[in-house]
Amino acid sequence: MAEKHAAFAIPDSLATDEDLIALVSRGDIEAFERLVQRHQKSALRAAQRFLGDPVEAEDLAQDAFLQVYHQAHRYRAERAAFKTWFFTILLNLCRNAIKKKRLVYSDNPSSDARDRDDPSTLLTRQEQARALAEAILKLPPNQRSAFILCHYENFSYAEAAQSLGVSLKAIESLLVRAKRTLRDELAWLKKP
Questions:
Q1: What's the Rg (C-alpha) of the chain?
Q2: What is the Cα 101 distance to its own chain's centre?
Q3: Quick check: 86 and 43 in contact, CB under 8 A?
Q4: Angle at Cα 141 formed by Cα 57 and Cα 49, nearest 5°?
Q5: Tens of pLDDT along 125-175?
Q6: Is 163 in contact with 155 (CB distance < 8 Å)?
Q7: Residues 16 and 67: beta-carbon distance below 8 Å
Q8: Alpha-carbon distance 136 to 52, whole Å?
Q9: From CA 163, how far away is CA 154, in angstroms rounded?
Q10: Are 15 and 40 in contact (CB under 8 A)?
Q11: Segment 56-103, tens digit of pLDDT
Q12: DSSP 108
């Protein structure tokens, strides 16, 4: 019974993801719930940006967390940070979903932007966000993954490289090509 509440023995501010996943590997549900709470928003954001479908993104994020729960005993802190390991699982699920069907991306500006802007500015921002989302979806999967991890999820190049299973040079190359493609694809936005 003591193990069931082991996560509460470690204050949330002091518990690392690695501490929590070690507890999850021993069946601690509370530790798992804390991991989900910590990473759910970024997982949903990344999956939605990758897939373009909020419902599918939510399903895949849940699937990724289920895999974490069932595979917690396989996690090795010496190989990768928990965040890197988790996003590897999530992006693999996203890539597999893309292979199965083509999805349409939608991104909504924040409610703050809606409150501050006049309708024409809001419309312009929505068009730009939609154009960027569509351009990201057109990127090859590895470029898309690298771009999302580094520019939206704030992964370092090293973390992104480890998550995608490529070298640091490969991440740099993927990002250069992704940015070039996006710049070319969105050049029309700069024209008056």
A1: 19
A2: 19
A3: yes
A4: 30
A5: 778 778 888 888 889 989 999 999 898 888 899 989 988 899 999 999 999
A6: yes
A7: no
A8: 10
A9: 13
A10: no
A11: 999 999 999 999 999 999 999 898 899 999 999 999 998 888 877 543
A12: -
